[in-house]
Amino acid sequence: MDFHFSPEEEKFREEIRNFLDTSLTDELVEEVERGTEIGIGPLTWELMQRMGERGWLAPAFPKEYGGLGATRWQQFLLSDEMTYRRAYPLHLCGVGIVGPTLLQYGTDEQKQEYLTRIARGEIEFALGYTEPEAGSDLANLQVKAERKGDFYIINGQKVFNTGCHFSQYVWLAVRTDPNVSKHKGISLMIADMKTPGITVRPLWVMDNDRTNEVFYDDVKVPVKNLIGEENRGFYYILTALAHERSFPTGDLRRTFEEFVEYVKEEGLGDDPLVRQSVAQLATELQALQLLAYRVTWLVEKHTSPNWEAPMVKVYLTEFMWRFSNAATEIMGPYGQLRKGSKWVPLVGRIERLYRHAARRNISAGSSEIQRNTIATVGLKLPR
Questions:
Q1: Catalytic residue (one of 244, 308, 329, 351)
Q2: pTM of the full structure
Q3: What is the mean pLDDT of residues 316-345?
């Protein structure tokens, strides 16, 4: 792969930076950083819609669906710059997961119905995958969908469905055939969160983010909302997961740069062990960025990163843990202070990252499961 961006890509990045210089406020960044605690707030929706007017919210979407027909590199640059400025609204499922999968497997009616609205910043999707007995073993899901005429009737419980308290739709995995092997009886469909019978209850996690448990009681989903073929949903989800695990690193780089400045200002770098630790982290962060570049390059080449994307997920989340742990040790008791304390450095971002990293090693697929995928799919090792 070529490690240099083209002149067109560099020009696009400069346009993004100029837009952010004139669009970002402290209030907007504060709202975005509160993440799933409040979901997508009013200032964030406004920013999304302004980006949508430019075709920037989903630049890789075709022009007829509100995008720019841009390259994957341009989309990566956009998300990377946005996260670096702490202005990217969560991890947009509509843009990053639902849209690319609909483009590949959706009907013309589904594309017309959802893609343009996603690209305009009008709607967002939550993921409806995980269940109490189906987390890493997603094929074990038990939420049932029975077809009755022009509708599916959905019953069961989901858990850790993070975006359901602010999204308009859920990207829902259900079991449509209990009499075949568990991988072959799953279907994927779109459910409107306003549908009667859906109950959302909050679950708060250790980094103050909100996720949810969701109950489906005789929920009617139109058959036209089925994605692709019935009982082929597990394989569509694998495609969607590859898109989900293409993570930008801008916010992490920004926090690391601020930490390095803190070490310099406080004279902590006089200790050779501190310098060695910071240098090691800088090396690992550069490796992480190159791994993320490689996944984008593979997608640009129309190659599904089935095991390369899990490599980024493992390295990213475990780097977050190593970084926050080392930074807390270097900063001493100050590194344990939360935002709001008058003595807290870096607005408490190190302490928050420490708690956030513990969760990220589990969410979106645990490190153990990702390593299994890398071993069996990538390295062709026996099970």
A1: 244
A2: 0.88
A3: 94
> Could you give all domains of the chain from N- to C-terminal order, each with its CATH number?
7-123 (1.10.540.10), 127-232 (2.40.110.10), 245-378 (1.20.140.10)
pLDDT tens sequence across 44-102? 999 999 999 999 999 989 999 999 998 888 888 998 999 999 988 766 889 988 998 99
Find tokens 């083209």 and name the residue.
6
Q: Is 351 a catalytic residue?
A: no
The 3-class secondary structure across the chain, one letter per residue, is CCCCCCHHHHHHHHHHHHHHHHHCCHHHHHHHHCHHHCCCCHHHHHHHHHHHHHCCCCCCCCHHHCCCCCCHHHHHHHHHHHHHCCCCCCCCHHHHHHHHHHHHHCCHHHHHHHHHHHHCCCCCEEEECCECCECCCHHHCCCEEEEECCEEEEEEEEECCHHHHCCCEEEEEEECCCCCCCCCCEEEEEEECCCCCEEEEEEECCCCCEEEEEEEEEEEEEHHHECCCCCEHHHHHHHHHHHHCCCCCHHHHHHHHHHHHHHHHCCHHHCHHHHHHHHHHHHHHHHHHHHHHHHHHHHHCCCCCCCHHHHHHHHHHHHHHHHHHHHHHHHHHHHHCCCCCCCCCHHHHHHHHHHHHHHHCCCCCCHHHHHHHHHHHHCCCCC
